[in-house]
Amino acid sequence: MAIHKVCGIETEYGIHVPGGDGNPITASSMLVNAYATEAERRTDWDFEDETPANDARGFTREGTLAPVVETHLANTVLTNGARYYVDHAHPEYSSPECADPLSLVLYDKAGEEVLRRSMRAAAHVFPGTPPVVVYKNNSDGKGNSYGCHENYLVDRSVPFAKIAAAVVPHFVTRQIFTGAGKVGAETTAVDKSKVTYQISQRAEFFEEVIGLETTLKRPIVNTRDEPHADPRRFRRLHVIVGDANLSEVATLLKVGTTALVLSMVEDDVAPHRDLTPADPVRAMHQVSTDLTLGRPLTMADGSTATALAVQWELYTTARKYADHHGLEPLGGDDVGEQVLQRWEAVLHGLEQDPSTLSRQLDWVAKLRIVEGYRERHGCEWGDSRLSAVDLQYHDLRPERSLYALVGMERLVDDAAVAAAVTTPPRDTRAWFRGQCLARWPESVVTANWDSLVFDLGTDPLRRVPMMDPLRGTAAHTEALLESSATPAQLLERLSA
After folding, report:
1. Which end of the chain has fewer CB atoms < 10 Å from its terminal CB, N or C?
2. CA angle (20, 24, 25) in 5-degree steps
3. Does residue 64 register a pLDDT over 50?
4. Which residue has better confidence, 141 or 436?
5. Is residue 340 included in any domain, yes or no?
């Protein structure tokens, strides 16, 4: 039976220092440091157990170590259970573990609010420095892409090759509803002279089907085998093909449909035919540049199918799967049914008239804005003003954001988002991590996804392992935390 699909999103944000040649690492550090300073607490990230070079295909790249961070000041853990740090010269927010896709939508939005507060905090903590502007996008327009990575808890007993084979068709084609949209092209993977607008910001940057890299020779299926949990029981599928979505509906579908596909793999349920493209990398580029959604892809078995047709087959299989197996892996029927109903409705909309989804999907909303600008100003597609409009869609400043002006459909409200900035999810181990940080910040020396290290004022330091993402929830630990006046009492009771 499929295991619960605990999930998370890591988002690298784009930054810009107007009117200056600011170092992006310095600017990113400034944001993280300012936020931590105003919160008056900072807990370092613990790299002790990280193994980013472990490959799910059964080997480890030689000569690799846990990542080196130049300064601990730019790497902290938040009371909502998230990690906030500098990665590849970008501020990155890694959400806490979430037990269902809708909860992840909430904590992804909380990440946006953390970055907005960071911009304000930087202006206050570092007066006189040029303001740092943050964008939730995936490309600087100059051929450099930065990621939005998803993570899913997967059963270790399922062979990785089986997982990879099942997710390739989904990852190649899901961009028709997860794409964030982009004016033009940046790489030689597509014909820049013919591409005016793309569905996905990230698609053209992928060069391989399967591999370990995340920044060069990007693979559709990433093989990093770093579960951040009990490695005998769990895998963590690290997904790097997604765009950074502002649309809440797109995020729900991105995570929910992928969680369903993975659940089907674990329960040995598959579409009635092989949906794998003959050339997945080329197909990924083709889907992104086909605004008609009608271009057939050549499949491995010699047949053809559009990206929309592939998604319809995946949806139909998922609906039958849900009717037979239930939706517990997605957190239950309420959220699972919402994912399925949204999936079906979006596919219908794309099939009939994509423009009807301008309040649900990022790429459709942005295309409508760009087309409107072109008509008003008589712009050709190569006009640099269109690229500026593209970027402004992703601006996190509410007064500047085009996304904020177009009335996109909401799934979570502002009050819930504000609460999620400081409060962890109640139904994963993020609860215990976040609550310990909120109650005893001076005693938690370091933290990571699967452990906390306490300093009780006596040697040695005490590590509390958290190897199951569904342990350490409010149901498991709230009463224990409430009854413990000190971290020493907590650890004594945990030991007992």
Report:
1. C
2. 140
3. no
4. 436
5. yes
Q: Which string of DSSP letters, residue by residue, matches 436-491?
A: HHHH-TTTEEEEETTEEEE--SSSS-EEEE---TTSS-HHHHHHHHHT-SSHHHHH
Question: What tens digit of pLDDT does each residue of 267-285 get?
Answer: 999 999 999 999 999 999 9
Q: What's the CA gap between 140 and 142, in Å, rounded?
A: 5
- Per the structure, the count of domains in the chain is 2
pTM beyond 0.85 = yes
Q: What range defines the domain where residue 484 resides?
A: 426-495
Classify residue 194: in a domain, yes or no. yes
Same domain assignment for residues 382 and 483: no
Three-point CA angle 313, 319, 323, nearest 5°: 150
Question: How confident is the prediction for the chain on average, in pLDDT?
Answer: 93
Check 44, 87, 100, 243 and give the catalytic one.
Answer: 87
186 within 8 A of 285, measured Cβ to Cβ: no
Q: Are residues 273 and 246 in the same domain?
A: yes
258: amino acid identity, one letter: T
What value does the mean pLDDT take over residues 375-383? Answer: 95
C-alpha span between 187 and 177 (Å, rounded): 22
In the annotation, is 301 catalytic? no
Q: How many CB atoms lie within 10 A of CB 345?
A: 13
Instruction: Tell me: do 64 and 111 sit in the same domain.
Output: yes
**Residue 460: inside a domain, yes or no?**
yes
CATH number of domain containing 388: 3.30.590
Residue type, 336: G
